[in-house]
């Protein structure tokens, strides 16, 4: 496990991909982070999700925005969730697959051993409670299909709508226009080799995101959640070259908080980093050409000697 003062980074920036750093060292910590993050106002809505407990998959009903639901059987398959209970369950504004259809689709899967779990925050809480019960060997209140497994690892993937994106994603009737599962999600895994926790945001495709007030507020809220769980230990950070971005002033932190800087100063930092990346790419190309030339020299020598 990495501690904050080890100054280790990954080699490449993966825009939109963020991690809890260092990796959570226990299943209890990773489950706390998952629960508190989903319960917090950082997450506006919880879409489709799954837990995998060894070889058993717990799958929630499908959950979509208006665009997808209206073009895929509409109200025959989906029901728009509204009202106080839906809001508490973080389903308000989503079109959720009707329960009878979801259970038939999930429980009758011939591909994997899967079972339907209720949607929304209640389903997240239930999945977490199952994991805790298995590790404590408290099986009486578990579903029958979970009672005999000896849990070695678990993982999860949860589609969400971040609160920072809520207003621009919401239609006049209060429903969400879409939910992007490949670009807005929370995921993690925990087993004998350790634990990890990632979260994704669809706006993270350029460096300029790290000087946007709404995104800085988003990161600071996540930081507070982490500090409430383990004060001073964990950080939300982008995958790759984090320390380089700090040194250049593309990511800016003071103590435990991220902050924005003057736009012109920020643009200069991004431009400088772009030039450094271009120089590195050119240098890598030169090295590759040298290696290619060496290979061709050896090949030509073999040809002249009558080899193949």
Concise structural overview:
The protein is of the alpha+beta class and 308 residues long. The chain has helices at residues 27-39, 66-70, 74-77, 84-88, 99-107, 120-136, 166-169, 213-229, 242-248, 263-304, and strands spanning 17-21, 43-53, 56-59, 63-64, 78-80, 95-97, 113-116, 154-162, 185-191, 194-200, 235-238, 253-254, 257-258.
Estimate what percentage of residues fall within beta strands: 15-25%
Q: Structural class of the secondary elements?
A: alpha+beta
What's the tally of helices?
10
Net shape: globular
Calculate the mean pLDDT score and round it: 87
Q: What is the strand tally?
A: 13
Taking the sheet with the most strands, its summary is: 8 strands, mixed
Poorly predicted regions are 1-14
Q: Level of helix content?
A: 25-40%
- Gyration radius (Cα, Å) is 24 Å
Cα distance spanning the termini? 49 Å
What's the helix-strand series? EHEEEHHEHEHEHEHEEHEHEEH
Strand numbers in spatial order across the main sheet: 7-3-2-8-9-10-1-11
